[in-house]
Amino acid sequence: MPIPTSLSLVRHRTPTLFRHHQNHHPLLITASKHHQNQNQSNVSRKQPPNKNLLRAKKTLTSKKDFPTLSPILSPDRTPTKLSDSQAIGTVAASQANFMRVIVTAETDKVEDSSSSSSSKVGTELLCVVRAVLKKIKRRVLVGDKVVVGSIDWVDSRGMIENVFQRTSVILDPPVANVDRLLVLFSVEEPRLESFVLTRFLIEAESTGIPTTLALNKAELVDQQVLSDWDTRLRSWGYEPLFCSVDSKMGLDSLASVLRDQTTVIVGPSGVGKSSLINALRNKPNSQVEADNWFDPIMGSKWFEDQRVGQPSLLKVTKQSLAQYFPEIRKMLGDNEPATCAFNDCLHVGEPGCIVKGDWERYPLYFQLLDEIRIREEFQLRTFGTKREDDVRYKVGDMGVKQAEPRLEPKKHRRQSRKRINQSILDELNELDDDEDLSGDENDPILRALRNENL
Ligand SMILES: Nc1nc2c(ncn2[C@@H]2O[C@H](COP(=O)(O)OP(=O)(O)OP(=O)(O)O)[C@@H](O)[C@H]2O)c(=O)[nH]1
Ligand SMILES: [Zn+2]
């Protein structure tokens, strides 16, 4: 089995975002679109190696996020009073200074739209963000639940007045309240390949966001191939959903898994991400008429995608890698925290290590461990860092901000690793301040690393 060593194989990962909403007014939410020629051979060279991390952190709450001026709203609460010119909505797309918001409720009583006679639910509003929110650095992201005010229902315009507290944020692309990652591959064209798939799965696992694996273009191979993959992937610890946008196979199961969730779809180029979304949205042969979650009002303008790069595994450390392999988690007995015979065991065949080598992806684990080791040693040489001590991004430990000590200015040289991490964290935090995240200039990791090199 050839294992590709070139990362360019997966450079076209395209997260695609959409929301299935219970109230039958689904939201396709995306960030701005960056069309990019797939055949452009210089794409990977243009993309710096650190750019493409699927970064995630839990929503953090600090004092500065709670100015009395405009208190942040708890996720499930609607403001007590909404006037006729106010509504609750979800940010579906952001373009320059404008946000497209889909109305989900127009008074405090109609969150459950099944009982609603509201005709405004589902309306698309073109919004600007209230200046004070910018002043207090409260960034509005795609996926955010917001209060829109000053609504002109005729012109479908409004102003975002406040943002509800987020349940999660991923930073590349920047999206709030992501409930699920859908890792989408195809069995053929392009052919499913275990190492590339593993990279995507590890990256997805490292966000801590629930992940579903789906394999498209199932009609291109015979049943035996599907069943072999099924067995194989189950041995990895996944329950793959097989589907075919072309033959419509498996789309209903997929739709029900994704229902009522904000999902980011990630996968290599050409596996059918856009096709899948279009198919789910239109679903002409929907078996249950009432379950036409992708309401026709969701025109194609709501479907956009944003290209980011390959999984960089930048958050993954030598020590954390093991926990992103379900096989290893299982061998360790699903303990929390998982333990081996040794503290800090890397599970590379030490006598007494619980993790034996009798599983398919063991060589891939080694390969990734090696890649991460090389990266960490590079960081050590370049930045004088320590290694595992500086793990900042673990599963379930994405709320890194609170734990991070502020730097004392005179200790910069000695604490260079801390300085770097602080810098990265500061940049991540400052993400909230950025107006435009589309360019490399605004990549927080990249900027942090650049700053370190000054
Ligand atoms: N045979 C087959 N082809 C499919 C299926 N689904 C999508 N395709 C085709 O695969 C090609 C790529 O589909 P896209 O939806 O553009 O793939 P994507 O993942 O969005 O690709 P990028 O935009 O490059 O990231 C298109 O020619 C689709 O028509 C399927 O189920 N079977
Ligand atoms: Zn071990």
UniProtKB/TrEMBL annotation:
Q: Which SUPFAM superfamilies match?
A: Nucleic acid-binding proteins, P-loop containing nucleoside triphosphate hydrolases
Q: Which residues form a coiled coil?
A: none
**Where in this chain does the record put each EngC GTPase domain?**
176-329
Gene3D superfamilies assigned to the protein according to its UniProt record, in alphabetical order:
Nucleic acid-binding proteins, P-loop containing nucleotide triphosphate hydrolases, Probable gtpase engc, domain 3
Q: Which GO terms describe its molecular function?
A: GTP binding; GTPase activity
Segments of skewed composition (Acidic residues): 431-443
List compositional bias (Polar residues) regions by residue number: 37-50
Spell out the residue ranges making up region: Disordered: 33-52, 65-84, 431-454
- Reading the lineage from the top rank, the first entry is Eukaryota
Concerning NCBIfam families, the annotation shows: ribosome small subunit-dependent GTPase A
Record's protein name: SMALL RIBOSOMAL SUBUNIT BIOGENESIS GTPASE RSGA 1 MITOCHONDRIAL-RELATED
State the species of origin. Answer: Salix koriyanagi
